[in-house]
Automatic annotation (TrEMBL):
Residues 3-120 form the Response regulatory domain. It is found in: Cytoplasm. It comes from Blautia hominis. Transmembrane segments: none annotated. The keyword Cytoplasm applies. It comes from the Bacteria. This is Stage 0 sporulation protein A homolog. Pfam families: HTH_18, Response_reg. The modification 4-aspartylphosphate is found at residue 55. Its main location: cytoplasm.
Length: 516
């Protein structure tokens, strides 16, 4: 059943909407009832619904603002607006916001039921359309990966544009930086590409396969001669032009991996695999780059120098700043753009193995931390070198925090303070008030804490808050402002600064990485 939320500030009317029609008989389940937009938005974030029936004029947050807030989070949700005669013109604005319909009060039973059925039909059509698109994408993916049967293969080959005698084909995989996308951008992006390219195949939400046909005076027979170089240069210029147009007109950043040229669609799966192989260079080159075999063949193969003994020592000594600075320097200063990307992955895997070894040695595997397979997946799923760096900084910070917590050599008063922080981190805690509580000199208590825990009381409190905030960012869809308040930060900008100091990445960027 599809889920419904009813929003109306007058309780009597709210109950009337709930009971005026048989929602369940229509295949709709009323899961939320709210009295204003703010309350409704909070309920929606806990359990999203498919259909919202809301009044226009309400205290705290009105119906149109509620519509905008939910629509910014999910474009699929359907809306029905309720309005009085004196609010009619005001409610008409809702038409521009893609509402299903608006109903004048007093509410007519038959009209409400008809509108609800209309909304349900629209939801079903949208779901079927999405399923068809997904089926189409899965089919293309299967064909390109060589998993289609003979009949399926012939079907997909027949969908590709005809090739003229003097034409040469080229295929490229375009990866879109979702962070640069806004609502409605995808349709404009596809419109530009379909205008420019022979064929655009939408494989994933952020991944496209572009097939271009080039008219050429050259006779193509592969090889590495001057003719081949001219053709590769022409193809690279063409895809670079597409990339630059998307960036200049829409502000959308992409990374394009170009496969080898070909003359027969039968070889498209092989070309696709080569184009996908180029995608791993996004890690070094970043979005805004267009890469083919010619651009990577002269890259060095020298290993990146990593001192595993030094990094291990800093982690076990709980030198958070030292370990983080080491990772920063390693990935930002010592890895050149013209390096071989395989060596970058080898370096990242060495660090992952080192961290896993430390977790095993200090029995941290049972904690709520990434296991080795999670880290490996994170390495190969990182969008760029900055995402890779942020992942390791976050993991090292977690390990050092657990090493602090698990150390049993603390004096009783330090243990009490740590327990109090973990329980009351939301409160205004300070070393001065805790020293007074435990009848100690604040300066002396600070020295003991620093010596035993390995960081100042202020830093420890910040680490605990940021650790809890990190879990909420990754495991809930709550707004970051609300999370900051939840962990005791009244100033969101200050929370951003402290969080980035701890994990090397902002809260918003961390959530984006999780989406990827």
């Amino acid at each position: 059943m599809k889920k419904v939320m009813l929003v109306e500030d007058e309780e009597l009317i709210l109950q009337g909407i709930r009971n005026i029609i048989d929602w369940e008989a229509l295949g709709l389940d009323v899961v939320h009832m709210a009295h204003n937009g703010k309350e409704a938005l909070s309920l929606w974030e806990k359990e999203p619904v498919d259909l919202v029936v809301t009044d226009v004029e309400m205290p705290v947050m009105n119906g149109l603002n509620l519509l905008k807030e939910i629509r910014s989070r999910n474009e699929r949700v359907r809306f029905v607006i309720l309005t009085g005669y004196d609010e009619f013109e005001y409610a008409r604005k809702a038409i521009q916001l893609d509402v299903e319909d608006y109903i004048l009060k007093p509410i007519d039973e038959e009209q409400l039921e008809a509108v609800a059925k209309k909304a349900l039909l629209k939801l079903q059509e949208m779901d079927q359309d999405n399923a068809r698109k997904m089926e189409d994408r899965i089919g293309w993916q299967k064909f390109l990966e060589g998993g289609s049967g003979e009949e399926e293969r012939k079907t997909f080959l027949s969908l590709l544009p005809k090739v003229k005698k003097a034409e040469l084909l080229s295929a490229a995989v375009m990866k879109i930086d979702s962070r640069s996308m806004r609502k409605g951008d995808m349709s404009e992006l596809l419109s530009i590409l379909q205008e420019e390219a022979c064929r655009v195949i939408h494989l994933k939400a952020d991944t496209l396969l572009l097939i271009e046909c080039f008219s050429t005076d050259y006779t193509w027979n592969g090889g590495e001669g001057e003719t081949a170089r001219k053709i590769r240069s022409e193809i690279h210029s063409r895809f670079s032009y597409l990339q630059n147009r998307l960036e200049s007109e829409l502000g959308i950043f992409t990374f394009i991996g170009i496969g080898p040229s070909f003359t027969d669609y039968e070889t498209l799966p092989e070309v696709y695999r080569e184009a996908m192989r180029m995608q791993k260079y996004r890690m070094l080159d970043g979005y805004g780059s267009c890469v083919d075999e010619n651009h990577i063949k002269n890259r060095g193969s020298k290993d990146v120098a990593i001192d595993e003994t030094q990094l291990r020592k800093m982690i076990l000594q709980k030198d958070r700043d030292g370990a983080i600075n080491y990772i920063e320097d390693l990935f930002i200063n010592n890895i050149r753009k013209d390096a071989d990307v395989n060596n970058l992955y080898q370096t990242a895997l060495k660090i992952a193995m080192l961290l896993w070894d430390i977790k095993g040695e200090y029995k941290l595997e049972e904690k709520n931390m990434q296991d080795l397979s999670d880290m490996v997946e994170g390495i190969y799923g990182a969008e760029d070198i900055f995402g890779l760096k942020a992942m390791f900084i976050s993991e090292i910070s977690e390990i050092i925090t657990y090493l602090h917590t698990e150390n049993s050599a603390y004096t009783p008063v330090v243990k009490q303070i740590m327990t109090e922080v973990q329980k009351n981190y939301k409160e205004e805690l300070s070393l001065k008030t805790l020293a007074y509580k435990y009848h100690m000199n604040a300066s002396y208590l600070g020295q003991i804490f620093q010596k035993e825990v390995g960081c100042s009381f202020t830093q420890y409190l910040s680490n605990i808050k940021n650790g809890i905030a990190k879990d909420l960012i990754l495991n809930t869809n709550r707004r970051i402002n609300d999370i900051a308040q939840e962990v005791g930060y009244t100033d969101t900008s200050y929370f951003y600064r402290k969080f980035k100091q701890c994990y090397g990445v902002s809260p918003a960027s961390l959530r984006e990485m999780k989406k990827y």
